[in-house]
Amino acid sequence: MRRPARLAVAAVTLGLALSGCTAAGDDDDTGPASPAASATPDQEDAPAEPVAPAEPVDPDEPTSWGPTEGELAEARELVAEMSPEELAGQVIVGRYAGTDPAVPAQLVSDLHLSGVCVTGDNVVDEAQVRATTAAVSAAVADSGRDFPAVIGVDQEGGTVSHLRGIATEFPAFQTAGRAVDGGGRSGKVAVRDAAYTTGLELRDLGFTWVYAPVADVTIGAADPTIGSRSPSTDPRLAAKATAAAVDGFDRSGTVSTTKHYPGHGGATADSHLTLPGLDAPIEELEKRDLMPFRAATKAGAPSVMIGHLDVEALAPGTPSSIAPEVYDHLRDEVGFEGVAITDSLGMGAVAGIPGLAVKALVAGADLLLMPADTRRTHAHVTKAIASGEVSPERIEEAAARVVALQMWQARVAGGLQVPDDISARAAEAAQALEVAAYAAP
């Protein structure tokens, strides 16, 4: 399915308020209601109250998370024409086994997936990685979609670097926290440049997404999962480092993913194995865990990853990735408007939950990351869309956000060529980050 021409959307938006650009639930409010529709007998002869005309939507106005209003409107038009199978695929980032580039490409082609996540188990060498990303990109293009595939990788630096030996080795993200600690503007610039060159290097390899930065505020030794992946034990330093990294990735044209909302650093169990509990009151979460996510949102974060956590203050007894209260908090209290992506749905914290992917979508997830069985999950989500278990409004809202974000990625990447010497520049940025960290008091 090809996109309608951008000029058609722009022409409409110049003179009219697009119904597709209204908030969810408001798109049936297409004009002023008839005065008689709600009048009481005593009011029937009363003069109608004047109704101010709707403000026209500027298609070039950027959203708070990247895409323009025109791109978002265009995405809404596109997904409204998708079949249940296409909609289901557009909100799934697939998991696959092995290192043959044809395998993920076939998965994307068969299921209309938005894309795939590449892990260390899928990597052999640089040539094989490039072949994989090219095959997945071609599969999306061959399906008639002229916006890019979601091709993501965990490339945080430090211990979580799935392209080890292929992309530049950056230090763990705790180095970023140390760099902004007393480093002032120079420290933040070093963090931003590290993210910027990471993003460009990933783009050179064919990736469009990176699952970083980690915004979790670690509690130290009692935190078995995040540790040095966290920028700091200090929420203010973590917030500064996270915002600088988001800025760098945005500039590079790579979609970043701020994670793991509402904060995994205070958990004393590993969500890869079991469901960790967070029993801190909301006041403590606000002062510690949520500060970096607010900073990331203000910095223009395009995507936030929802962790698998039992957060007593928000949704006791329910994993946060399938809890509507957590998504509502992210939207209403933090103000995030972009793509909400789950943590991997194949993790131990959520293993065995019936209808896991559908529950995540209904709760408010826009993108489902790495289901344990991609094909089976696609079938379940397709059935839920067709039956109305996932409402048309919810699935189209989710898919439109993903499509609009990929339009943004294509636009920014198209205006910024990756330098031929990007590997050398990335190595310099990694060294500059280390120097800034050690120079800080």
UniProtKB/TrEMBL annotation:
PANTHER family: BETA-HEXOSAMINIDASE, BETA-HEXOSAMINIDASE-RELATED. One of its GO terms (biological process) is carbohydrate metabolic process. It catalyses: Hydrolysis of terminal non-reducing N-acetyl-D-hexosamine residues in N-acetyl-beta-D-hexosaminides. The lineage of its organism: Bacteria, Bacillati, Actinomycetota, Actinomycetes, Propionibacteriales. Residues 31-41 have a biased composition (Low complexity). It comes from Nocardioides dokdonensis FR1436. Pfam families: Glyco_hydro_3. Belongs to the glycosyl hydrolase 3 family. This is beta-N-acetylhexosaminidase.
